[in-house]
Amino acid sequence: MEACHGHGKEKESQDLPRVLLFKPPPDFHLFGDECFSSNKFKFLKAWESPLPLDQFLKTHAQSVEAILSSGGAPVTAETLRLMPAVRLVMTTSAGLNHIDIAECRRRGITVANTGNVFSEDVADLAVGLLIDLLRNISASDRFVKQWLRPRQAAEGDCYSLGIGSKLGGKRVGIVGLGSIGSLVAKRLDAFGCSISYNSRTKKPSVSYPFYSNVCELAANCDILIICCGLTAETHHMINKQVLSALGKEGVVINIGRGPIIDEQELVRCLVQGEIKGAGLDVFENEPDVPKELLALDNVVLSPHCAIFTWETFKDRQKLVVENLEAFFSNKPLLTKIVDND
């Protein structure tokens, strides 16, 4: 009887709809494979197959109805061509630059992301990078840890770090006043900063000054914080002209996507002192980081980890499962994509 019961459960699992995974999400490494588990669907893990990916996709072309993708596993037009039964692409990120949205629309494929699950944590890190940069926290930490005989250090040595800068009263320009940008503005408002913003359109409900031109925004702020998504329009939007407008006392923070900034130009400006500093959680060619940045005390770096809190990972897992279960139950998705900042 027990054997029959086990066989029945196995058959039941075989009958579940398939969700394709190209690569294991970070959650698998941290929480194990069961973190996205459900009795409503079954994962098909491409990395476990000995077959080349295109052959693997052709083998399962008619059985896969949904794809769960992370930023490290792009969903291209060619992928979708090989998977004609796919009706949903669910991503574990808020950003969509790794998904061919136009092709999904053309094929009538629904796309869902993680909505605002990450927004609080990303906004926190943006402010953290900024305070670190203005007050030389990371540079001071390195200075103290490199003291071989701290008590005998010359009294004036710490002045070599330079004097920090106050956050209150600074003019902050936010590029992309969406969910994350609005939370950054709210936090910096509390520090007494003066907020202005650039966005695709002016927000009628927002009282902050609006600049339709990002160069004009940069010219009228001390700090430029990049919070927008990566699209064809925003690629290298922060270029030589924008950085020049920001000026020698200007600071740039990027918690959006690396390629929004022309990284080569940013490095040149930092090395030559044409801007004051940068706080970067994202880079143009991840995981590669320009070696010039590593030697600069006026640069604070983090490894694209703005969302890395236990609470957010758990919230993301719950949301992903709920979206997939809603899809397979023909119910409305919780975070279906809508075009906005």
Automatic annotation (TrEMBL):
An MF annotation (GO) of this entry: hydroxypyruvate reductase [NAD(P)H] activity
Domain of life per record: Eukaryota
Biological processes annotated in GO: oxidative photosynthetic carbon pathway
Claim: Oxidoreductase is one of the keywords in the record: yes
GO cellular component, as recorded: cytosol
CDD domains according to UniProt: HPPR
Keywords: Glycolate pathway, NAD, NADP, Oxidoreductase, Photorespiration
Pfam families given in the database record: 2-Hacid_dh, 2-Hacid_dh_C
D-isomer specific 2-hydroxyacid dehydrogenase catalytic domain residues: 55-335
Residues annotated as domain D-isomer specific 2-hydroxyacid dehydrogenase NAD-binding: 128-306
InterPro entries in the cross-refs: D-isomer_2-hydroxyacid_DH, D-isomer_2_OHA_DH_cat_dom, D-isomer_DH_NAD-bd, NAD(P)-bd_dom_sf
KW NAD (keyword) present: yes
Similarity comment: family membership: Belongs to the D-isomer specific 2-hydroxyacid dehydrogenase family. GyaR subfamily.
Protein name: D-isomer specific 2-hydroxyacid dehydrogenase NAD-binding domain-containing protein
Biological source species: Citrus clementina
Organismal lineage: Eukaryota, Viridiplantae, Streptophyta, Embryophyta, Tracheophyta
